[in-house]
């Protein structure tokens, strides 16, 4: 490869989208320019594509430089094979997320140990003076473990992030993979497809179903349905807080034909998810109290008179008694009652049922003292006889289950023996009135 210097308009240099700018480095270039008037090397291809020096290029643009000296590589970077120090190389971040951190590389390590040969890595400059490995991540890790300090590297410049990701996936075609790894490859292919579809300039894609089937075959998961089931299992595994369930899913997905087993573990969740219905729209009831949320009566309270299709005819508080207004359902909401304590709510319910207060029905008495048989006797009632008979009549209209719920609210520690005693007391009260 040969290089030469040439003046170039920095605004005409095209930088690949996957190269990121380091603001600290840009600031450093700007400070150095203010003292020395120099801008570090910007390396480009003959066609004007940036190869290295993204921070220097950004600094030149911010300085509004119309011409800078750049280094032009006269040989395509795709064919450049060079030796790079291990400290300047690093594995691709997505490699570990797809294939895991704890791969078994013992066979590869043994082969490299015996032959001493590591196939050339494929890497791309990251614009920060280092190189991101696209293909050969496992070889790089094993080589570092064996003490290799220099690696043969084929440098490539990619026109887009999607091209880089395709090369990453292509470099792992021949390896043996678990179902989980195949799914994670498929999800990356989906991302690539989405991004590429944006650049088709209005051309229709293959459709979700066709894309799913193509990706399923590409990653080796057969049909699109099989791929969908595997994806669902992996997504549940990633979000599952229970370590036992997570391990069960991981175990199933590690087996050659484990998609069905993994999907059975999550099937109840998927079915429940599919059956969930969107919340129904609120519709007021006749005589219900509401708050108006829109229109000329906004923030006022009203009482519903009757419903008419998607509206309600209401009487707005503060208007003449005979006046009625028609308000759409979407401009009203249930009137929120003032918050009450649990004790107040309980007393109100007792009052509504005609039961009086807890102290009137169950006078406080020492517990677990005296003859146990006394606990089964009806409690002494200190309120008027008519009130007792009215409460008894009200309670005896309830079903046994309803009565138990009412009495349990009044006396949370109510047991069966005391409930029977209360029931007999109620019957006795009514029998006395009948006599």
What does the model show?
- The chain is an alpha+beta fold and 435 residues long.
- The chain folds into five domains: 3-75, Conserved hypothetical protein from pyrococcus furiosus pfu- 392566-001, ParB domain (Alpha-Beta Complex), CATH 3.90.1530; 79-170, Conserved hypothetical protein from pyrococcus furiosus pfu- 392566-001, ParB domain; 179-275, no CATH class; 289-334, SH3 type barrels; 342-434, no CATH class.
- Helices cover 44% and strands 16% of the residues.
- It has helices at residues 23-36, 54-62, 93-99, 106-115, 137-145, 161-170, 179-198, 208-219, 224-239, 243-253, 259-275, 342-352, 358-361, 385-396, 400-410, 416-434, and strands at 3-8, 43-45, 50-52, 68-73, 80-85, 89-91, 121-125, 131-135, 150-155, 289-292, 301-308, 311-316, 325-328, 332-334.
- The strands form three sheets. A five-stranded mixed β-sheet has the order 5-9-7-8-6. The protein has a five-stranded antiparallel β-sheet with strand order 13-12-11-10-14, with no helix packed on it.
- Helix 9 (224-239) runs antiparallel to helix 10, helix 9 packs across helix 11 (259-275) and helix 10 crosses helix 11 (259-275).
- It is elongated.
- The termini are far apart.
Uncertain spans = 372-376, 378-383
Report the sheet with the most strands, covering strand number, pairing sense and barrel closure: 5 strands, mixed
Radius of gyration: 39 Å
Shape: elongated
Note the topology.
Blueprint: E1 3-8, H1 23-36, E2 43-45, E3 50-52, H2 54-62, E4 68-73, E5 80-85, E6 89-91, H3 93-99, H4 106-115, E7 121-125, E8 131-135, H5 137-145, E9 150-155, H6 161-170, H7 179-198, H8 208-219, H9 224-239, H10 243-253, H11 259-275, E10 289-292, E11 301-308, E12 311-316, E13 325-328, E14 332-334, H12 342-352, H13 358-361, H14 385-396, H15 400-410, H16 416-434
């Amino acid at each position: 490869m040969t290089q030469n210097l040439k003046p170039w308009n920095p605004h005409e240099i095209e930088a690949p989208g996957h190269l990121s700018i380091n603001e600290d480095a840009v600031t450093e270039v700007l400070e150095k320019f203010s003292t020395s008037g120099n801008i570090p090397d910007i390396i480009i291809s003959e066609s004007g594509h940036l190869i290295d020096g993204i921070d220097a290029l950004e600094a030149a643009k911010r300085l509004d430089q119309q011409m800078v000296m750049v280094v032009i590589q006269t040989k395509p970077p795709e064919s450049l094979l060079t030796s790079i120090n291990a400290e300047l190389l690093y594995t691709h971040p997505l490699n570990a997320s797809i294939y895991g951190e704890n791969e078994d590389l013992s066979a590869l390590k043994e082969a490299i140990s015996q032959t001493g040969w590591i196939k050339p890595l494929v890497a791309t400059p990251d614009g920060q003076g280092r190189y991101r490995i696209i293909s050969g991540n496992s070889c790089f890790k094993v080589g570092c473990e064996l003490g290799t300090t220099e690696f043969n590297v084929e440098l490539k410049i990619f026109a887009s992030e999607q091209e880089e990701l395709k090369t990453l996936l292509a470099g792992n075609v021949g390896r043996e993979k678990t179902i989980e790894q195949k799914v994670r490859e498929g999800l990356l292919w989906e991302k690539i497809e989405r991004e590429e579809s944006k650049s088709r300039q209005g051309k229709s894609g293959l459709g979700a179903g066709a894309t799913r089937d193509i990706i399923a075959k590409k990653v080796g998961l057969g049909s699109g349905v099989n791929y969908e089931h595997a994806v669902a299992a992996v997504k549940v595994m990633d979000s599952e807080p229970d370590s036992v369930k997570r391990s069960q899913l991981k175990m199933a997905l590690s087996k050659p034909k484990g998609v069905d087993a993994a999907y059975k573990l999550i099937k109840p969740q998927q079915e429940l998810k599919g059956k969930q219905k969107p919340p129904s729209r609120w519709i007021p009831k006749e005589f219900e109290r509401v708050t108006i949320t829109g229109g000329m009566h906004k923030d006022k309270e009203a009482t519903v008179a009757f419903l008419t299709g998607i509206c309600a005819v209401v009487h707005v508080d503060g208007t003449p008694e005979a006046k009625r207004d028609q308000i759409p359902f979407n401009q009203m909401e249930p009137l929120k009652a003032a918050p009450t304590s649990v004790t107040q709510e309980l007393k109100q319910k007792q009052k509504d049922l005609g039961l009086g207060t807890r102290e009137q029905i169950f006078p406080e008495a020492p517990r677990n003292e005296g003859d146990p048989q006394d606990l089964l006797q009806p409690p002494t009632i200190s309120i008027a006889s008519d009130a007792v008979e009215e409460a008894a009549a009200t309670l005896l209209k309830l079903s046994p289950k309803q009565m138990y719920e009412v009495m349990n609210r009044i006396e949370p520690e109510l047991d069966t023996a005391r409930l029977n005693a209360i029931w007999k007391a109620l019957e006795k009260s009514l029998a006395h009135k009948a006599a």
